[in-house]
Amino acid sequence: MAVRDRLRVSERDAAVLREVGVFLGSLAAGDLAVRCRQGLAYDAAGWAARKREVTGGSSARWAGSITKATHDQWALARRGQMAEMVWLRGQIAQIEARMARPLGAKACRPERLARGYGSRSEWHAKSRRLHALKDRLAGVEADWATGRVHVVRGGKRLAHLRHHLDEAGLDERTWRERWQTARMFLAADGESGKRLGNETIRITGTGETSIKLPAALAHLANAPHGRYVLDATVAFKHRGQEWLDRITANRAVAYRIHHDHVRGRWYVTASWQRAAVPVLPLQSALTRGVVGVDMNDDHLAAWHLDVHGNPVGEPRRFFYDLSGTAAHRDAQIRHVLTRLLHHARRCGAGAIAIEDLDFTDGKSREKHGRNKRFRRLISRFPNAKLKARLVAMAAEQDIAVVAVDPAYTSRWGAQHWQQPLTTPTRKTTRHDAASIAIGRRALGHPIRRRTAPPPAHQNDGQGHRTVQAGPEAQRREEPRPHPPGPRTRRVPPGSGTKAGAQCAQHRSEHATEQQSWQQDSLPLSL
């Protein structure tokens, strides 16, 4: 859990924070260099030696935060190397499979054969790309074997921007200030049992903020015990009561102070770890119905379903905009999930059903060809971030999240639910119908509205034909009516209400009673 508030610091406070951040940032950069040189030869003794070296210029607590952040950054770089190796191997395998096929050959899904390239020039270009990917993979594998990582404190993008200042519209002084700001370090881990949960960066219940200065900057202190008290106060609006309960009980709270150079603002972020949420059994989570959600590029389509799989109420659509900066996209995802959870609470549903989408291996040109529009669509699709954020936010509302197989939900939902739910006053979209299919799959019901007819004969003589609801459910779908006539086989031929008009209605000028009739079978799917 993390909450953030703005620090409206004075000029003196800003100068002290900047000096402390730059000093600790230099220590963090040196520690990161040592950790990267160690590579795989890492043990607890090496960590202790690094911590003792950093402690000499700061303090034991600052050294602990710096070494922990360094190790986390190195581990993140290692995970990035592994992800890159997996991606490179997948790309190489796809290109080799397509190059082994004849030119213009079509794909054969039963035999798992990829389609061939369209022309000789494309085949030649892909062969050159194959060699480039293999060389790149060899370099990454060599780095992985030796434990070598490539990390830039401050970000590679900002480092590369130094050589393109004219294109970015920056001068050297502005870039250097941004670079210095990005490399500052002002983060302290929490400690349970200590006063207010943190001895290094301390925030009281009234919002007073103080920092334990490093030993080399103790002359900047304006409070006893080498601390500096800021003029600005903090008031966490979001989850402020939960944060206040933690610091009152002296439970661990981590703080991070950072500077937004573009806006010229200072912020403080408080974070803590909550207890693990117990996983509910699936049947218990679905006892109050479910809200099926279909994730799209610009909106979420949701529909509430009861325990029998019947759609209740009206469909809902929650729109969001994923253009702009990363902070704007994160805010849009957070807002749309908040509205979705509020809708689930109002409906009384105990679970939300989503598709278990995964596009990690499906964004390349080798799989989708030259369909650039579709590749861009799935590349900006926030499925991983949306699912992770939804699980975290739903746990706060005591709402379960059920992930289902996404296969054919849109197609079968549109086939079986879009037209029956469309009325003169309500236009049901394909995405709305897909949300019903997702919800029914989470509940364990088939997506089709009806089951197969009884095997003995094609009528309702053996009972109700639908599995949506039992006889005790109100407003359930009743069996089909039985109008008199030859086709129902309820009355003898020629004695029905429409028997006299059969010859006139039949185009072949033969009575319908003289021909056999058989009900068409209902297709299970497309």
Class by alpha and beta content? alpha+beta
C-alpha Rg (nearest Å) = 32 Å
Intertermini distance:
45 Å
Total helical elements: 16
What fraction of the residues are assigned to beta strands by DSSP? Answer: 5-15%
Largest beta sheet: what is the strand line-up? 10-9-8-11-12
Q: Give average pLDDT, whole number.
A: 82
Task: Let me know the largest β-sheet.
Answer: 5 strands, mixed
Summary, kept brief:
The protein has 526 residues and is an alpha+beta fold.
Write a structural description.
There is one protein chain. The protein has 526 residues and is an alpha+beta fold. 41% of the residues lie in helices and 13% in strands. It is built from 16 helices and twelve strands. It has helices at residues 11-38, 44-55, 60-99, 120-146, 156-161, 165-168, 172-182, 240-248, 282-285, 326-347, 365-368, 372-379, 383-396, 409-418, 430-443, 502-505, and strands spanning 2-7, 187-188, 201-203, 208-212, 227-233, 254-260, 265-271, 290-295, 299-305, 311-319, 351-355, 400-404. The strands form three sheets. Strands 10-9-8-11-12 form a five-stranded mixed sheet. Strand 8 and strand 9 (299-305) form a beta hairpin. Helix 1 (11-38) packs across helix 3 (60-99), helix 10 (326-347) crosses helix 13 and helix 14 (409-418) packs across helix 15 (430-443). The radius of gyration is 32 Å and the shape is globular.
